[in-house]
Amino acid sequence: MGLLPTWMRDAVMPLYESRVIKGLAGMEPPRHVGIMLDGNRRWARAAGHRDVAEGYRVGGAKVGEFLGWCQDAGVEHVSLFMLSDDNMAGRPEKELVPLLGIIQDTVAGLAASGMPWRVRVIGSLDLLPAEHAAALKEAAAATEARGGMLVDVAVGYGGRREIVDAVRTAFRRHIEAGGDPAELADTIDIDHISANLYNSHGADRTDLIIRTSGEQRLSGFLLWQSAYSEMYFEDVCWPDFRRVDFLRALRSYGLRERRFGK
Fold first, then answer.
1. Is residue 222 within 8 Å of residue 199, measured between CB atoms?
2. Element (H, E) at 71
3. Among candidates 213, 195, 217, 215, which has minimal Cα distance to 204?
4. CA distance linking residue 64 with residue 52, whole number of Å
5. Active site residue 196
6. How far apart, in whole angstroms, are the C-alpha atoms of residue 115 and residue 149?
7. What is the C-alpha separation between 114 and 124, in angstroms, rounded?
């Protein structure tokens, strides 16, 4: 399809998308999808924008649309990787400041009245400026009573940091309950970590992880939860990610034999 002229691609795309949808019939959708919204800066530069923040704005506007696709497909839980802890340390301030504002606006939009999903913000919010952290927490808190699809927004997130924090939390809770830390050191197991992840509500396994922009690495995303995840790498940058790209990811997932190490 990539070799066809644009006008021809646009004409045949509905037919192609319909064919992909038919191919999904009878396939079990992933319960939990993680997606790395990558390629926003690259998209902005390729589109001729001097300010790479334009890529993040367009990418942020796509998030709600993507969640609608997930909901239609029967996905129960989505994790969006928006900003890593490494990004917090490595991005120049002139780029980071507008990005944080765009993330804040995006989360506020997802949490707005009338939206059908529950939103949680996961990550080390203490790495963020206090006003952004407070706004993200407030937006997420407004959705707590909702019963729809669960949406985790990973901001200031690092998979290694999450595991370290889970161990610390396990020990802290054990000690606060009057337990001996030496006893926990001898008995700590997988369940202790899973129960103390940033989102411990049955989210210790991710079925499908999608990364846009053509990069093929996890970059610390959901390290604990991705032990048996299926990976899908998409060449297009996040602002150009289409419904048909998502459907193809679901088809790829549905055709795989999941063995969970057996």
1. no
2. helix 53-73
3. 195
4. 21
5. no
6. 10
7. 28
**Cα–Cα distance, 237 to 244 (Å, whole number):** 14
pLDDT, tens digit (0-9, with 9 covering 90-100), for 212-252: 999 999 999 999 999 999 999 999 999 999 999 999 999 99
Which of 51, 72, 85, 87 is an active site residue?
87
Q: How far apart are CA 112 and CA 73, in angstroms?
A: 22
Q: Which residue has the tokens 């400026």?
A: 129
**CA trace torsion 242, 243, 246, 252 (10° rounding):** -110
Question: How far is C-alpha 81 from the chain's CA centre?
Answer: 4
Q: What is the pTM of this model?
A: 0.92
Helix (H, G, I), strand (E, B) or coil at 62: helix
Is 84 exposed, middle or buried (CB count within 10 Å of its CB: 0-12, 13-18, 19+)?
Answer: buried
How far out from the chain centre does Cα 168 lie? 24
φ and ψ of 83, to 5 deg:
-160, 125
Active site (annotated) includes residue 87: yes
**Six-digit token pair at 169?**
């939390």
d(CA 114, CA 109): 10
pLDDT in tens, 151-191: 999 999 999 999 999 999 999 999 999 999 999 999 999 99
Please give the structure tokens belonging to residue 193.
């970590």
pLDDT value of residue 8: 61
User: What does the block give as tokens for 202?
Assistant: 């049955």
For the chain, how many helices (H) and strands (E)?
Answer: 10, 6
Q: Which residue in the list 38, 152, 207, 240 is annotated as catalytic?
A: 38
The residue written with tokens 């507008």 in the block is 98
Location of structure tokens 């370290």: 164
In the chain the domains, ranked by start, together with CATH numbers, are 26-255 (3.40.1180.10)
Look-up of token digits 């504002």: 101
